[in-house]
């Protein structure tokens, strides 16, 4: 079996360079590649274009790369939770392209499935449609949206094996599997790295063919954005 | 006149046994508290979950298990988890029976604006454009007028659009209204104690009302 293991995040991201386009998995702070983000901050690569559903919060996630001015452009569906992001956007330091969430996911999927473009009704008749080809199928209009091209995809999984096969846990799956499929080079960080053969092939979410480098991450914080609970005292 | 919970309560009556439902943020989230007992409904969260359960007990929250509002939640017996592409795939393929979401403006031809105010920090459309472009049944939950006292039910939207000709029903603190296929708002029900004239004055788009418009039944 081909071995995809690298020792850690620094080695995994060693050839990411200024100006590259990166995909980063996660929804909010759930399922984000924490170790890769820390390594990118340490490495200090700049002028990055980041494709990610959100842009983190001020002191975590992609927010850390905004603090260090490493991001030139964000391509996201929702970016609300970040004051530094807002400051850079309003001052013109940061470019932002907002696209519908399903379009974001599907443009990743298209890349991973080898399809140059897809048709979606999301955004028809809105400013999202400006400059895009519209096609009518069975009486309904659709926008043509191109597959993403990303130099690297950085994803976070729960378990992975040395062959690069990945299993995600709960809703931390989100964008991770489709981004894993879409990167020219895909780097997976996992909470638990096991030998090939230790995972049941029937349970694999992302086949190792899509994953080029894998390592076991450390010290996951897994921050919660909105801690909503029911008090046990209520009963 | 209804409060937010009243609006949620009235919308919950539109939910039928066997429905898969996507609830947006704000008043729509409250609808989950009023789903009629004795029916089976599955809530979708577009970050990749069918079968959204209540908030966890204190100490049992799981950072890997959140809803689209990034709140910690739980799963239920029969829940399923999937990736974001499949989540919007089932929305696009109209497997979700009902979408309930908030709005800043709705026009009399069913256009909706709910994601952007020019001149203000724009956070993004999230999944709203995908939902309104594909859902077969969309109910808007919103206040009838904005904070400046201006009607949010308009001849045409003034804010950047989220979707066109997609809204079928609106529930506000004053009324239940259908958007007619040929254009215009049809007054279906009045909130308790609210007159047709009052609703008419709060509606800037074309309003059609029968001679006798019933009051909402909330319980």
Automatic annotation (TrEMBL), chain A:
Gene3D superfamilies: Glutaconate Coenzyme A-transferase
Keywords associated with the record: Transferase
SUPFAM superfamilies tied to this protein: NagB/RpiA/CoA transferase-like
GO molecular function: CoA-transferase activity
SMART domains xref list: CoA_trans
InterPro entries, A to Z: 3-oxoacid_CoA-transf_A, CoA_trans_fam_I, CoA_transf_BS, NagB/RpiA_transferase-like
A Pfam family reported for this protein in Swiss-Prot or TrEMBL: CoA_trans
Family: Belongs to the 3-oxoacid CoA-transferase subunit A family.
Entries under PANTHER family matching the protein: ACETATE COA-TRANSFERASE SUBUNIT ALPHA (PTHR13707:SF60), KETOACID-COENZYME A TRANSFERASE (PTHR13707)
Protein name: 3-oxoacid CoA-transferase subunit A
From TrEMBL, chain B:
Transferase as UniProt keyword: yes
Keywords tagged on the record: Transferase
GO molecular function, one term: CoA-transferase activity
SMART domains documented for this protein: CoA_trans
Domain of life: Bacteria
Pfam families: CoA_trans
Entry keyword annotation includes Transferase: yes
Membrane-crossing segments per the record: none
Recorded family membership: Belongs to the 3-oxoacid CoA-transferase subunit B family.
PANTHER family: ACETATE COA-TRANSFERASE SUBUNIT ALPHA, KETOACID-COENZYME A TRANSFERASE
Protein name, entry field: 3-oxoacid CoA-transferase subunit B
């Amino acid at each position: 079996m081909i071995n995809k293991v690298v020792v850690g995040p620094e080695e995994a991201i060693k050839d990411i360079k200024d100006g590259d386009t990166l995909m980063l998995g996660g929804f909010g702070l759930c399922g984000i590649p924490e170790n890769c983000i820390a390594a990118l901050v340490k490495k200090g690569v700049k002028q990055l274009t980041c494709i990610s559903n959100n842009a983190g919060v001020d002191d975590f996630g992609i927010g850390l790369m905004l603090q260090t001015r490493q991001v030139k452009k964000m391509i996201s569906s929702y970016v609300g939770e970040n004051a530094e992001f807002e400051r850079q956007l309003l001052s013109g330091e940061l470019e932002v392209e907002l696209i519908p969430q399903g379009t974001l996911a599907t443009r990743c999927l298209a890349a991973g499935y080898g399809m140059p473009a897809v048709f979606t009704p999301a955004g028809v008749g809105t400013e999202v449609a400006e400059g895009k080809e519209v096609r009518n199928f069975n009486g309904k209009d659709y926008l043509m949206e191109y597959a993403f091209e990303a130099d690297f995809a950085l994803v976070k999984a729960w378990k992975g094996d040395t062959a690069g096969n990945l299993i995600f846990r709960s809703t931390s799956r989100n964008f991770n599997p489709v981004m894993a499929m879409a990167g020219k080079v895909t780097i997976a960080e996992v909470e638990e790295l096991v030998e090939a053969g230790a995972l049941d092939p029937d349970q694999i979410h992302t086949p190792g063919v899509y994953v080029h480098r894998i390592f076991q991450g450390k010290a996951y914080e897994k921050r919660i954005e909105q801690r909503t609970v029911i008090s046990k005292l209520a009963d | 006149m209804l409060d937010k919970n009243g609006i949620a309560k009235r919308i919950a009556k539109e939910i039928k046994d066997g429905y898969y439902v996507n609830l947006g943020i704000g008043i729509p989230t409250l609808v989950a508290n009023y789903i009629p007992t004795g029916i089976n409904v599955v809530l979708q969260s577009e970050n990749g979950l069918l079968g959204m359960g209540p908030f966890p007990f204190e100490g049992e929250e799981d950072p890997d298990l959140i809803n689209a509002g990034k709140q910690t939640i739980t799963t239920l017996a029969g829940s399923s988890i999937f990736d974001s592409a499949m989540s919007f795939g089932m929305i696009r393929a109209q497997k979700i029976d009902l979408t309930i979401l908030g709005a800043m403006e709705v026009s009399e031809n069913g256009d909706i604006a709910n994601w952007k105010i020019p001149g203000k920090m724009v956070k993004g459309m999230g999944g709203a454009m995908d939902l309104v472009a594909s859902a077969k049944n969309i109910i808007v939950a919103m206040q009838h007028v904005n904070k400046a006292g201006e009607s949010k039910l308009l001849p045409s939207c003034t804010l950047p659009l989220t979707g066109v000709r997609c809204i079928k029903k609106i529930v506000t603190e004053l009324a239940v209204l259908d958007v007619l296929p040929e254009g215009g708002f049809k007054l279906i029900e009045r909130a308790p104690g609210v007159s047709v004239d009052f609703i008419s004055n709060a509606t800037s788009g074309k309003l059609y009302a029968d001679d006798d418009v019933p009051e909402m039944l909330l319980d």
